[in-house]
Amino acid sequence: MSLCRALSKLGLCSRKQAEILVAEGRVRVAGKIVRNGSLRVDPGRDRIEVDGSRVVAERKVYLMINKPRGLVTTRDDPQDRGTVYDCLAELNLPFVSPVGRLDKASEGLLLMTNDTRFAQRLLDPASHLAKLYHVQIGALPDEALLARLRAGATVDGEDLTARSIEILRSGTSTAWLEITLDEGRNRHIRRLLGAHDVEVLRLVRVAIGPLQLGELAKGKARHLTVEELALFAA
């Protein structure tokens, strides 16, 4: 694998940060400074050093976050907006990456890990891992609207559908829907509902597969338990 990818897989930093370290001449392979981030290396055999210290694989970390609205799901934001990494400030962690995304305006369950195989397994479209969302809309849906939403929509050449759409509760002018997806396209729910002129007021992810958000406070993070990890291995 490439040197930058190896530094990321070892849990030191993101690939983008690795590119910067390499460009600054801070990375050595077998004792020699390397400035080519595409250099092929074997992290299990080659001695890789950053700033004179050998890089070894970090312990595997699996986290869940209750992401608040307004945070972006990136490590570094060029617009200097708050990021989900702000939720990890009190934890002593190796570098971790989000498993998938929640856009800035969305809330709820987000997983983060430094286990790339675990992340790839959850993100693999072939897994059809269900993701459950509670969505507040600026409308009172009737059966006709529900039928149109369940039929899906084609937006910018993409066919957008949901596994299920049900009414959770209705108020005087707004309602909450429970929407289940088994694929995750960019802004999937917002684009699907927008195609039917339905305004999304809030969008909260409450479950990923068998894992539920539960009572985790907004803006907080915690490690997954052994039992929770076992749910994904089943």
From TrEMBL:
<dbReference type="GO" id="GO:0160138">
    <property type="term" value="F:23S rRNA pseudouridine(2604) synthase activity"/>
</dbReference>
<dbReference type="InterPro" id="IPR020094">
    <property type="entry name" value="TruA/RsuA/RluB/E/F_N"/>
</dbReference>
<dbReference type="InterPro" id="IPR042092">
    <property type="entry name" value="PsdUridine_s_RsuA/RluB/E/F_cat"/>
</dbReference>
<keyword id="KW-0694">RNA-binding</keyword>
<dbReference type="InterPro" id="IPR050343">
    <property type="entry name" value="RsuA_PseudoU_synthase"/>
</dbReference>
<dbReference type="InterPro" id="IPR020103">
    <property type="entry name" value="PsdUridine_synth_cat_dom_sf"/>
</dbReference>
<dbReference type="GO" id="GO:0000455">
    <property type="term" value="P:enzyme-directed rRNA pseudouridine synthesis"/>
</dbReference>
<dbReference type="InterPro" id="IPR002942">
    <property type="entry name" value="S4_RNA-bd"/>
</dbReference>
<keyword id="KW-0413">Isomerase</keyword>
<protein>
    <recommendedName>
        <fullName>Pseudouridine synthase</fullName>
        <ecNumber>5.4.99.-</ecNumber>
    </recommendedName>
</protein>
<dbReference type="GO" id="GO:0003723">
    <property type="term" value="F:RNA binding"/>
</dbReference>
<dbReference type="Pfam" id="PF01479">
    <property type="entry name" value="S4"/>
</dbReference>
<feature type="domain" description="RNA-binding S4">
    <location>
        <begin position="1"/>
        <end position="60"/>
    </location>
</feature>
<dbReference type="Pfam" id="PF00849">
    <property type="entry name" value="PseudoU_synth_2"/>
</dbReference>
<dbReference type="InterPro" id="IPR000748">
    <property type="entry name" value="PsdUridine_synth_RsuA/RluB/E/F"/>
</dbReference>
<dbReference type="InterPro" id="IPR018496">
    <property type="entry name" value="PsdUridine_synth_RsuA/RluB_CS"/>
</dbReference>
<dbReference type="InterPro" id="IPR036986">
    <property type="entry name" value="S4_RNA-bd_sf"/>
</dbReference>
<comment type="similarity">
    <text>Belongs to the pseudouridine synthase RsuA family.</text>
</comment>
<dbReference type="InterPro" id="IPR006145">
    <property type="entry name" value="PsdUridine_synth_RsuA/RluA"/>
</dbReference>
